[in-house]
Design brief:
The complex is a heterodimer of chains A (132) and B (136).
Chain A (H helix, E strand, L loop, with lengths): L16 H15 L6 E6 L15 E6 L5 E3 L2 E3 L4 H11 L4 E6 L5 H13 L5 E3 L4
Parallel strand pairs in A: 2-5, 5-6
Antiparallel strand pairs in A: 2-3, 3-4
Chain B lengths: L17 H15 L14 E2 L3 E2 L6 E6 L5 E3 L2 E3 L4 H11 L4 E6 L5 H13 L4 E5 L1 E2 L3
Parallel strand pairs in B: 1-8, 3-6, 6-7
Antiparallel strand pairs in B: 3-4, 4-5
Helix pairs in contact in B: 2-3
The chains are: A alpha/beta (132), B alpha/beta (136).
Chain lengths: 132, 136
């Protein structure tokens, strides 16, 4: 018994080529994500030591030690509760300025966590003290 | 007198070269999409929730700070005290510049404050702590 060859033409069908190419094009267009930089924005004070007198009651001291523990106005506060505490203080006094002071050996991640918490509490006025 | 159409114009768009055109487009997009401009130092970025996107890439300058305290700008290593001059030049050529600080999560605050001070001196006041998104 002999098998008959059904297709005689030896050409590759090119009519669907366009569709395949389109598909590839769309695939690449969708999957390429241009990675955008994201992070916590902050504006530094202008150079020069300009002393601004601020009333003591308008300042909330936020101290970070080298272990990453936070002292919020003399009161040890777990990092994840800072935003709640600051929010409460802000509701009492909208003029509140949070002054963040960190130890020399504080890790950057602890500092970023605190800044993140302050941002979560919508504290717009953040002062960053020099740690040296 | 009757005019008869002499030439017969086919009304079809030639599709034979269609794949070529689309392949061209494909290759164009593949070539032009830059995945990452320059990789600085190996850093593990800290994580944060309240993040914002940097508006434009063109007005961004990156400072990389590694775990060991190395500082790299535009793929060159610098001391803390050099940042002032470099950032000042950058700031003069582009007043809208935002500095993206890509520091390792275990970098020490001593160095970060030093960079703050240098940036203040260079009048490059817009700073962004580059972070990853915190997922809980």
């Amino acid at each position: 018994m002999k098998n008959k060859r059904r297709f005689k033409s030896g050409e590759i069908p090119t009519s669907s080529m366009a569709d395949i190419a389109f598909l590839l094009l769309i695939f690449f267009l969708v999957t390429t994500t241009i990675d955008t930089d994201k992070g916590l924005g902050i504006v530094l004070p202008p150079p020069g030591d300009v002393e601004i007198e601020i009333k003591k009651k308008n300042i909330l001291n936020c101290l970070i030690n080298s272990q990453g523990a936070v002292l919020l106005d003399e009161e040890p506060t777990p990092v994840d509760q800072i935003s709640g505490a600051v929010k409460r203080r802000l509701a009492e006094n909208p003029l509140l300025i949070v002054s963040v002071k960190s130890h020399k050996k504080t890790e950057y991640s602890d500092y970023v966590r605190v800044i993140d918490q302050l941002k979560t509490a919508n504290a717009m006025r953040i002062s960053i003290a020099n740690s040296n | 007198m009757k005019f008869s159409r002499k030439t017969k114009i086919s009304s079809e768009i030639p599709t034979a070269s269609m794949p070529d055109i689309i392949f061209m487009l494909l290759i164009f997009f593949m070539v032009t999409t830059v995945l990452r401009e320059s990789s600085g130092l190996p850093v593990e970025l800290p994580k944060a929730k309240r993040i914002e996107k940097l508006k434009s890439r063109r007005h961004t300058s990156q400072i990389w700070v590694s775990r060991e305290g190395l500082i790299s700008i535009d793929d060159r290593l610098f001391n803390v005290s050099d940042i002032r001059h470099i950032m000042y030049d950058k700031r003069v050529s582009d007043p809208m510049i935002t500095v993206s600080l890509k520091a390792d999560e275990s970098a020490k605050m001593e160095l970060i404050s030093g960079i703050h001070e240098e940036l203040r001196q260079a009048d490059a006041l817009k700073l962004n702590y580059s972070t990853k998104t915190l997922v809980n």
